[in-house]
């Protein structure tokens, strides 16, 4: 089994930023209000008063105020499928695992369009509250182990940032993705991205 991070790995860009830009064109008022609330909560996060999950919840809260938000998400995905990187399209398999900190709401739709069955991403309830923890860093490994109890079955892992290190470390081999370049990963690799 091969494991792929999504944003900036198999997708050219960050879907969180892209869905905000997409919403600003279609639902500017509710999107701007959400971003203003997120800015306030981010100040609290910087003072260690709240977890990062709260910032993310506020930042993306506009989604759950959109009438028929599943259609909005489907439209967003269709509009952004061109951003899936060609190297991944050449190598993809239905047995791949996509493992992302972005919301399951849209990562699962991208995966469906790609014909990939296994998706692990940050889940939310119908009000936009994150269920459990943001699927990032060591949480990725914990969630991966729920799907694949024997982590020795992970052949190749792909990631773009230092937050992917825990997953890259457990694979038989691993690659860092920088743009369209695949660079063999090794312990101590200096990542360009730490998001």
Features:
195 residues; alpha/beta; six-stranded mixed beta sheet; 8 helices
What does this structure look like?
There is one protein chain. By secondary structure, the protein is α/β, with parallel strands linked by helices. The protein contains 8 helices and 6 strands, in the order βαααααβαβαβαββ. It has helices spanning 15-26, 28-46, 52-59, 69-80, 86-91, 104-114, 138-147, 165-170, and strands at residues 2-4, 97-103, 118-122, 156-159, 173-178, 181-184. The protein has a 6-stranded mixed β-sheet with strand order 3-2-1-4-5-6. The longest helix has 19 residues, at 28-46.
Write the layout of secondary structure elements.
Blueprint (H helix, E strand, L loop, with lengths): L1 E3 L10 H12 L1 H19 L5 H8 L9 H12 L5 H6 L5 E7 H11 L3 E5 L15 H10 L8 E4 L5 H6 L2 E6 L2 E4 L11
Parallel strand pairs: 1-2, 1-4, 2-3, 4-5
Antiparallel strand pairs: 5-6
């Amino acid at each position: 089994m091969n494991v792929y991070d999504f944003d900036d790995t198999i997708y050219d860009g960050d879907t969180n930023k892209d869905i905000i830009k997409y919403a600003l064109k279609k639902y500017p008022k509710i999107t701007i209000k959400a971003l203003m609330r997120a800015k306030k909560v981010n100040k609290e996060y910087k003072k260690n008063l709240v977890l990062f999950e709260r910032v993310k919840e506020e930042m993306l809260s506009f989604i759950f105020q959109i009438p028929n938000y599943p259609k909005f998400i489907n439209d967003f995905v269709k509009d952004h499928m061109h951003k899936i990187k060609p190297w991944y399209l050449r190598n993809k398999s239905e047995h791949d695992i996509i493992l992302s900190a972005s919301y399951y709401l849209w990562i699962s739709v991208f995966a469906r369009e790609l014909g990939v069955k296994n998706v692990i991403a940050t889940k939310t309830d119908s009000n936009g509250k994150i269920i459990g923890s943001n699927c990032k860093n060591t949480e990725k490994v914990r969630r991966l182990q729920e799907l694949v109890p024997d982590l020795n079955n992970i052949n190749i892992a792909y990631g773009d940032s230092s937050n992917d290190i825990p997953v890259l470390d457990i694979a038989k081999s691993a690659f860092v993705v920088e743009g369209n370049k695949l660079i063999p990963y090794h312990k101590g690799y200096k990542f360009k991205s730490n998001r």
